[in-house]
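Quick question: what would this complex look like in 3D?
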Amino acid sequence: MPKAMGAVKQAVPAEIGGETHVATGSSRTAAKVVAGRKVLPIVEGVVLVAALLAPLVLQDYLTVFATRVIILALFALSFDLVWGYAGIMSFGQALFFGSAGYGVALLARDLDITNIFVVLPAGTLIGLTFALLLGGFLLLGRHPSSVIFVSLGTLTGSYAADRLARGWYYLGGQNGIPSIAPMSLGGYEFSEGPTFYYLVLGILVVVYLLCRFLVRSQFGLALAGLRENEQRIAFFGYKAQHLKAIIFAIGGAIAGLAGSLYAFHEGFVWPNMVGVVVSTQVVLYVLFGGSGTLIGAVIGTVIVEGVSFWLSDNYRDIWPIILGLLLLLVILFRPLGLISFVLGERERVGSFGAKVKENFKEKRNAP
Amino acid sequence: MLLEAAGIKKVFGKLTALDGAALTVGENEFHGLIGPNGSGKSTLMKCIAGAEVPTQGKVSFVNTDITAFTPTERARAGMSLKFQITSVLPTLTLYDNILLALQAQSSLFDLVFSRTRGALHDQVMTMLTQFRLADRAFDAAAALSHGQQQWLEIAMALAGKPKLLLLDEPTGGMSLEERRVTGELLQPIKKHCSLVIVEHDLDFIRDICDRLTVLDQGKVLASGTVSEIQANKSVQEIYLRRA
């Protein structure tokens, strides 16, 4: 037991980039925490400004690419909530992304429904429903389900959906559903380009802020407990399985929203979209950028997609190998993702009594 | 009786860890569970807390049969456990560790909208002050010494105002001074809480417990007040035998 404790103590300074955070006295630590607390909003601000300016400086075809990246970043947020925040190994996140994509594609193809106020909520609902069904089955037992069970269960779900889509004629089989009509609002049609980009960016910002609110609330504290020691918090009286199912469902809903946007942006859906490949891709985005931070998921998506795009242009034959090596390097040397270059462990985890903390300090400093 | 465990049998494969063990604890009673290594103390604790399901036997708590309750249900009924291995959440601050324990029974709505955060502040600080950790409230729990982590964990286990607290080796790995302080920290909780404590340090047990139960090879060897147990011949024998 003492050995294990030592390991924990050593691990912490290592994770915060070798700073002597732990060893310093409490006053210096406090100063660091306060100074450190400003990093995250700065990163978020920089990313937002860059995203707002992107279409002004990018060529048209790159704006289309950037739109796709923003949609995938929204998808990455969903996985980050489930895995990075709640510690649920979901290797089948594409199931919710892709099924929503197929759902809205069918709405457009068979019922001519493309109104944005119908298709986006419908896609979200499809993602939510599938996540409730799968999450209910995998997570809501009387006793906690094992990590292996959940990860294999989600993986199998995604794989099965892929096979189903490939074999089902109604869904277009291997070819999927091509030429989906554009998303519309009244007489206006959203086609690829700056308008679609800003629409998607707006949605990402709103969802991001909602997630931010959630993970910083007392619910977020419960998630942190869930992630670090599920058994412990069950012994406090938390209904740990319920918490997991709830966050899994929220993740599914966000993935569904992203999937419906993706379907309309690309103009077609195909079996890969529900399958293991896309499910794995989202894991990489989040690992690369930094799981357990929302902005890490966004940055990871932008970098992985950006680098793939550039590599595939310049090193047509060997780019997947280069990308694979890059990802391995990051995972080996920066297990907390690229964001950990600028973000300390303490700020990543955050404080949940933050407002209270300031009041407390004022009281202490008062004469 | 607050807690009544009777006829508890627990079999792991070919090993019978508990063979008809029993334990009764009254209100506001500090009850020590002692015995040689491998006598089944920790297993009995786990069966009471819900970490293990007994092969046979019955556990009642506040006149309710809780044998089939999950740990969550037991916690909600007023039972709390401090694990043998410290399991504070190392990356969270001390403050958040306590808040996490305190808000366990808040509704989902309250959690999402952080409606109990303000109201629980005083309770968090009271717990931290009581366990002499207030000045480190906003440090990460990983930065605490081993002894302080044990105190933090006891504070977390007490945060939900349980009727019964199960402590599995609270002074494990502590210095003599830390053990003394732990004893002091535990005394005041007697007003509102009973305690079952598994401990190797017999001096510590003698100082704080009202009654003792001695286990040997999965069975109860003796149960009674501290002086009764001290005078018991067979208890003396097993401790001499193993010493």
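Answer marked as accepted. The longest helix of chain A spans residues 240-266.
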